[in-house]
Give the backbone structure.
Amino acid sequence: MEILEAYDLTGTVWSAATLTGHDPKTVKRYVEARNGGRNPYGREPRPKMIDAFLEKVEEWVEQSKATIRADVVHEKLVKMGYRGSARSTRRAVNAAKGAWKAGKRRTYRPWIPEPGRWLQFDWGEGPRIGGRRTWLFCAWLSWSRFRVVIPFWDCTLGTLVACLDTTLRQIGGAPTYVLTDNAKTVTVEHIAGIPVRHPQMVAAGRHYGCQLVSCVPYDPESKSGAEATVRIAKADLVPTSANLLAAYDTFAELVDA
């Protein structure tokens, strides 16, 4: 705190080092850590040789349900070109097993989207109007967090294509990938773990110039952005005892909302 306070007062590394009695390199390290959004009080981990193989270690731990031994992992990594020590491998395996046993089936890393690359969408059940169900088409542009919510009476294939057309016109372009779940309007079936797309959706993707992809079955976290969009849309539009919204008399009122 004294180093950062001195730097904020003087604005220079050398002056702050003189005031606090520390080395200028130490002052510079603390200032750069704070400016970079990192914790200046925590010790940053140094790069290790095992870092390039961590994803493979986590994959083996998950496949074996945390029963694989560290010496087996080390032997596999050596064949893949790993030149580190068995001790480093043992530490990495123990950390991966600890994360798996704590309920994390994999170690999560921050996902950094790219502009124009990912659009996610999902369906959520909307409010009932005159006793009839409605559906909310919720799309989420990953980079800009731009959201599109469209109410419909159904979620059939024709409705889905119309919603995608409206969404792409709203965002003013077509992304590289459109991610959703494995509904029958998108994925007809899985053969040997490979999803078979609905031919009309394949044609629609080719028409708009984007590729339709689906998440891993029973893994909603792989499209959590769309899941959050549905949750927010339902909280804002569906009348409940919590938000105290009045019921909609007509579908036009839902569209306006």
